[in-house]
Amino acid sequence: MKVMVCLKQVPHQDAKLDINSDGTWIQEDNIKFEINSYDTYALEEALRIKDADADTEVVVVSIGPDRVTQALRTALGMGADRAVHVNDAEAFGSDALCVAKVLAAVAKAESPDLIFTGLMTDDGNSSAVPPMLAELIDVPSATGVLHTEAANGSLKVERELEGGAIEVVELPKPCLASIQTGANQVRYASLKGIMQAKKKPIDVKTAADLGVSDVASKATIDKVYSPPKNATADILSGSTDEIVSGLMGKIKELGVL
Amino acid sequence: MSNILIVAETQNGAIRECSYELVTLAQSLGGTVKSLVIGSGVGDLASQFAGKGGGETFVADDAAFANYSVDAWNKAIRAGVEASGADVVLISNTPQGWDVAPRIAAGLDVAFVSDCFNAEDQGGKLVCFRRVFNGKLDAQVTCGAGKAVLTVQPGSKEPFSGSGDGSTTALSVDLSGVRSKFVEIKQAESTGIDLTKADVVVSGGRGVGDPEKFPEVILPLANALGGAMGASRPVVDAGWLPHAHQVGSSGQVVTPKLYIACGISGAIQHLVGMKNSNYIIAINKDKDAPIFEVANLGVVGDLFEIVPALTAAVKAAKG
Ligand SMILES: Cc1cc2nc3c(=O)[nH]c(=O)nc-3n(C[C@H](O)[C@H](O)[C@H](O)COP(=O)(O)OP(=O)(O)OC[C@H]3O[C@@H](n4cnc5c(N)ncnc54)[C@H](O)[C@@H]3O)c2cc1C
User: Fold this and answer.
1) Which of A172, A224, A251 has the CB atom closest to B179's CB atom?
2) Could you read off the pLDDT of B103-119 as tens digits, one per residue?
């Protein structure tokens, strides 16, 4: 069994978000990056299949600049077998559909039985790439998955609906599942794993290597900006004592004491 | 925009409110509005929707649509796009919408913008607005020439409540080759903690930073106020608290007399679970956190200073 895991390296969730000089994205120099939180759960879900069946190969794929090597090393350290790094400035500046086309080319070359991705990314929040990738390679897909169970030729998944309800779906393999946060408890890379990861291969490619020539976006970001504030809270200021007495005044007024 | 197709969604035998929000958006974009209703035995719902802003409404009615399947919906929507000649397809960003919409765009090889809270026709160009970085920034996205598929954030528009001319047209869909198979729906288990009954909910988010801090810092304030302890999703995902404490779109929706959010940024999925509370206090060290937009009263500061001091003051006041 071969499982392909797509992961993106994104700005750390606590990074300070300053807007770049042309206003189209954030300033990415000198901030910390991490593996997209949703994708860590996707990787863990794949590694659990490998834990249960040692014949499983887990291939991690990421599109992005040089810094992405670090994310791939982390994934290899956690237990993935090898990595494909698409390092191509045009491909990672493009929209979800182009990203999906590049990943589809990787998937066609790898022909995995299962593809796991995160439900969405912590930066773009689009949740677009996984179903697009599935459509482009013509396999069934399920999004927002909290539980997977591989059985004879198919994958049974539990999709999260609103309010905590679950939809159980069965997909014949090959298929794709986008994993929701909380699906599992994500492991850390062990010291041994990190040492072993140094010897694991990272295959670096461009979009052209993969035979993808059309990387022009059909939807482009004109600008990003701080959301205009519609309404805003009255802000209490002063010493902690002053703030607490302000809060207490309100709490008493509400009659909840 | 010349032709817009609304993909309406049904739930528990009715058209969802968010589908009427799509009507409002479609009307603001201008052009001809057509709709699509998919399901089994949904003829009446489709007529209803057609007369309430949906316009010419295509009905994909088949026993095979009794339950959602991504492959079946993909085929039905593609047939609807074809039949309607739509340039713009609007789908609500619900668990069904986000499951199928990107496949439609990829299959048609057209522009896709997800989870828009607004879209405008600016001189023939479709310009969309959406949140990025979990609500910390907004982005303006322009679609190039050709068709576009948009998913729209539920709650971002007023639902259309007027009426209009409409008719229904049966749409036949070739359902060969459907692979994804619906098995069952499992309803959320009730776990004993009912946050919806509490007068006061004190919630902690990722900013609380550490599982031990919930019993040390958040719970004592909840107890002092005679309330319940809530949490944002990352707290539950990390296994710090059970799911029963989660407030938000995939947790509980609460409307207490007082909601206190500590170290919660205010992502939309959290806000839908608590924004209708009677009174909201937010404590967050980031003055730009979106939670301050729904809060009535805010403290820009360290929760580890404010919350214990407030707990002490509440206890003192109760004597
Ligand atoms: C399909 C789907 C469903 C979802 N359902 C839900 C849901 O039901 N409920 C939910 O909550 N989320 C849900 N989410 C996740 C949501 O998008 C956000 O990721 C989440 O709400 C963020 O939680 P947070 O505010 O605790 O964390 P963050 O966004 O990381 O915010 C932490 C905040 O803590 C502040 N902070 C840090 N330290 C301190 C300190 N010492 N003192 C004061 N403030 C501090 C920071 O300034 C920051 O604003 C869902 C997402 C998806 C995609």
Assistant:
1) A172
2) 999 999 999 999 999 99
Whether B56 and B146 share a structural domain: yes
What's the predicted TM-score (pTM) here? Answer: 0.96
ipTM for this prediction: 0.96
- Whether the CB of B286 is below 8 Å from some CB of chain A: the reply is no
Q: Does B303 fall in a domain?
A: yes
Query: What does the alpha-carbon distance between residue A155 and residue B94 come to, in Å, rounded to a whole number?
Result: 23
Query: For the purposes of burial, counting CB atoms within 10 Å of the CB of B197, is it exposed (0-12), middle (13-18) or buried (19 or more)?
Result: exposed
Does B252 contact ligand 1 (Cβ within 6 A)?
no
Q: What is the pLDDT of residues B125-177, one digit of tens each?
A: 999 999 999 999 999 999 999 999 999 999 999 999 999 999 999 999 999 99
Set of chain B residues whose Cβ sits within 8 Å of the Cβ of A256: 199-200, 225-227, 257-258
Separation CA A233–CA B266 (nearest Å) = 13
Ligand 1 in reach of B233 Cβ (< 6 A): yes
Do A181 and A37 contact (CB within 8 A), yes or no? yes
- The torsion angles phi and psi of B285, rounded to 5 degrees, stand at -80, -10
3 state DSSP class of A251: helix
- Using DSSP's 3-state secondary structure scheme, residue B309 falls into helix
Strands (E), A191-253: 202-205, 219-225, 234-236
In chain A, the largest separation of any two C-alpha atoms, in whole Å, equals 68
Query: Based on the domain organization, do B199 and B310 belong to the same domain?
Result: yes
CA distance B64 to A146: 25
C-alpha B238: how far from chain center:
23
Q: How far apart are CA A182 and CA B240, in angstroms?
A: 11
Domain limits for position B51: 3-170
Chain B closest-CA separation from residue A180 CA (Å): 10
Report how many domains make up chain A.
1
Please state, rounded to an integer, the average pLDDT across all residues of chain A.
95
The rounded distance, in Å, linking the Cα atoms of B156 and A229 is 15
Angstrom distances, CA of residue A8 to CA of A99, A129, A146, B24, B130: 11, 11, 19, 35, 20
Instruction: Give the residue from chain B lying closest to A24, CA to CA.
Output: B139
Is the beta carbon of B38 within 6 A of some atom in ligand 1?
A: no
Residue B180 lies in a domain: no
Partners of B175 on chain A (C-beta within 8 Å) are: none
- In degrees, to the nearest 5, what angle opens at C-alpha A119 toward C-alphas A115 and A120? 120
Could you tell me if B185 and A167 are in contact, meaning their C-beta atoms sit under 8 angstroms apart?
yes
Angstrom CA distances, B307 to A49, A252, B222, B312, stand at: 43, 16, 10, 9
The token pair at B231 is 């949490």
What is the nearest CA distance from A63 to chain B, expressed in angstroms?
Answer: 19
CATH number of the domain that B216 lies in?
A: 3.40.50.1220
Pairwise CA distance, residues A17 & A233, whole Å: 22
Do residue B120 and residue B206 come from a single domain? no
To the nearest whole angstrom, how far is the Cα of A179 from the nearest Cα of chain B? Answer: 12
Q: Mutate which of B180, B264, B285 to disrupt the A interface (most A C-beta within 10 Å)?
A: B180
Residue B62 lies in a domain: yes
Kindly state whether residues B142 and B202 are assigned to the same domain. no
